[in-house]
Amino acid sequence: MEAPQYVAARVQQAMAEDGRTHELGIRVDIRGDQLFLRGQVSGPGQRERLGQVAHEAAPELHLHNEIQVVEAGEPGEDEHLD
Amino acid sequence: MSILTDLRIAAVGDIHLGEDDRGRYRKKLEGIEDRADVLMVAGDLTRHGTMEEGQVVADELRGLPIPVVAVLGNHDYHSDLQYEIAGELRDAGVVVLDDDGTVIQCGDRKLGVVGGKGFGGGFAGKCASEFGEREIKNFVAHTRYIAESWKVALKEIVAEERVVLSHYSPIKETLEGEPPEIYPFLGSYLLAEAVDTAGADLILHGHAHKGSEKGMTPGGIRVRNVALPVLGRAYAVYCLDCEGGL
Ligand SMILES: [Fe+2]
Ligand SMILES: [Fe+2]
């Protein structure tokens, strides 16, 4: 059986290189036959695409897509540099 | 209320707009002219650097009531269309820096902006050097060439305030939060060394989505990582020379 580290690396590579996602900052953890994705993206579409690409790269694993969708908030307070 | 001589710089990087984001970022820029004198965009404007995405970005930034200066990021290079994307942005009125500089008139003040994408290599003591295989030498030489161009541009520019706009980071501090193993791909100390030599008031960069906002070069120049995921807001505003503060 392939070591989980190599499977995780392959999933990560797929999410970075696949034309649908090109996402570099997603953490991949594998425990037994469970695959966990964690990180932040700017929209729900990207989260779904990442789940799809990860699933295709490791279809034998049960996927938990825990990626968070974070919308950019209102511009906050100014910082004064002097 | 800000004092008239304040120079207010709005900054953001890594907006990573895709084709399904049309109109979404523009909404967040409404009223920016009341908050800032200029908007600086620190690269990674697109997701995959396609022409379609470049057009979305150009439309989002088109016709803003304040000047917009941008550099591209590694994502904008992915489809080998960086020159076309830069052209699209310029047609929309955005000043795109490519290892050169520009001067923006902000009220009665001249603001010089120098920069470009930047590149990696790592940080003093833990970095690549121009030695060995051609591929490694090319990698380091690329960063060196960029740093040298910025130094020259900073020395030549005539302005009261000088800001450096980059995608890659010049220092480690603003990378905190990223795994240290990938620091060499996130920036290079050669960029900081060049800016410290020539002098500047502020360095803005993006690229490190999990990094930290604030840091400083060894020479004491303030550095801000304005990657959107780091800021968690549409843009940050930095005020230069705010004598007396608010
Ligand atoms: Fe980015
Ligand atoms: Fe980047």
Here the CATH topology of chain A equals Histidine-containing Protein, Chain: A
Radius of gyration of chain A: 16 Å
Order of helices and strands of chain A: HEEEHEEE
Just name the CATH architecture of chain B.
4-Layer Sandwich
Layout of secondary structure:
The complex is a heterodimer of chains A (82) and B (246).
Chain A: H1 4-17, E1 27-31, E2 34-38, E3 40-41, H2 44-57, E4 62-65, E5 68-69, E6 79-81
Parallel strand pairs in A: 2-4, 3-5
Antiparallel strand pairs in A: 1-2
Helix pairs in contact in A: 1-2
Chain B: E1 7-12, H1 24-28, H2 32-35, E2 38-42, H3 51-61, E3 68-71, H4 82-91, E4 95-96, E5 100-106, E6 109-116, E7 122-123, E8 126-127, H5 134-156, E9 161-166, H6 189-198, E10 202-205, E11 214-216, E12 222-225, H7 228-231, E13 236-240
Parallel strand pairs in B: 1-2, 2-3, 3-4, 6-9, 9-10, 10-12
Antiparallel strand pairs in B: 1-13, 5-6, 7-8, 11-12
Helix pairs in contact in B: 3-4, 5-6
Outline the structure in words.
The complex is a heterodimer of chains A (82) and B (246). With 82 residues, chain A is of the alpha/beta class. Chain A contains 2 helices and 6 strands. Helices cover 34% and strands 26% of the residues of chain A. Chain A has a 3-stranded mixed beta sheet with strand order 1-2-4, covered by helices on one side. Chain A has a two-stranded parallel ribbon with strand order 3-5. In chain A, helix 1 crosses helix 2 (44-57). Chain B is of the alpha/beta class and 246 residues long. Chain B has a single domain, classed as Metallo-dependent phosphatases (Purple Acid Phosphatase, chain A, domain 2, 4-Layer Sandwich), CATH 3.60.21.10. Chain B has helices at 24-28, 32-35, 51-61, 82-91, 134-156, 189-198, 228-231, and strands spanning 7-12, 38-42, 68-71, 95-96, 100-106, 109-116, 122-123, 126-127, 161-166, 202-205, 214-216, 222-225, 236-240. The mean pLDDT of chain B is 93. The chains are: A alpha/beta (82), B alpha/beta (246). The interface between A and B is medium-sized, with 21 and 37 residues. Strand 6 of chain A pairs parallel with strand 13 of chain B. The structure holds fe (ii) ion (2 copies).
